[in-house]
């Protein structure tokens, strides 16, 4: 796989080709990745895969007209052809008053590009990956009550991302990722239940052992056996960290500047409203060492920075790239995201809700009758109104104690009401891109048996 300097050199050559073809301004993003994974089932090798790919995306501007082209190969001839095609397309495109590169005075510099320790220098062999997968599956199958396996897997990936613009920005970084997972079955016939566990990390040293992953998968699966139904009604709902991150995910989608500009967000005209209890803080941290989405610069070359997305009960602003910022008359926030094709979007990096003051155990003990939700199914969320309706499963809470597993019910409410009634526990764990502790939400409706 190519290194960072090679990727940047290719970006610069593509920019030169774009200028020669007639582009007034342009930017180029290049990515390269290599990954391999090994899957085992019932102690035997089931699959081994390796893939490598490269992609380059060129965006050109002629006044307010623009076009984007992408390719999976790179050569001097291919660069010239891409540039000529992009410029020809831009000349035919309609004018977009919001199109253009990010403001030049806001660009980050090489001095700003701190080392975020995203690349593990070690690369596992296929034999090592197989050993990790076998360890995870063996541990999961060893949990009493597990009757079958859907497999264990281990993976490793590495990538390089480079971005260069015609107004002087140039940056690149390399990252790696290790992963382990296991999925098993408990019970027989119609009573079978399935669950899983997985973890990923930039560095192997931050990854739990295959044994820990496997035991967790097995215990989760066995705990689901013999689920009961729930009566309809309204009871306190606790969202386990396995699913509580989705509640913040819906918020992030509604904060996206493109949704605000389209007036298709349930947060529209709510920027000054107190939507959360004032103790809740949600932070975006692009500079988290070894973070899964850490980056020193965004997809348009702007410096990223840590910021509180929610503070004092209020959303602090919108998630903006250059185009949505212009449309809203605001400044870009360093959240541009860029793939190989299409114009930049906007996305956050490493997000977490800061933990509360109550333990998860105390939170459960305070519930006379309620549910700890561990799985959500379906996409029943209206991004315009905030209406929320999703199938769920989890565990009944009776007299302050976790009791039998429950399934086959639906949770319904409105996200704005849910945010206002939200209480976080203190069990925040930082190992995903979006990390949220257990949260309690009162006032939701259950549609059950």
UniProtKB/TrEMBL annotation:
Residue ranges of the Metalloprotease TldD/E central domain?
120-225
One biological-process term from Gene Ontology?
proteolysis
Q: Name one GO molecular function term.
A: metallopeptidase activity
Record's GO cellular component terms: cytosol
Q: Where is the Metalloprotease TldD/E N-terminal domain?
A: 26-90
Q: Which residues form the Metalloprotease TldD/E C-terminal domain?
A: 232-448
As for family, the record states: Belongs to the peptidase U62 family.
Q: What protein name is recorded for this chain?
A: TldD/PmbA family protein
Query: Which source organism?
Result: Pontixanthobacter rizhaonensis
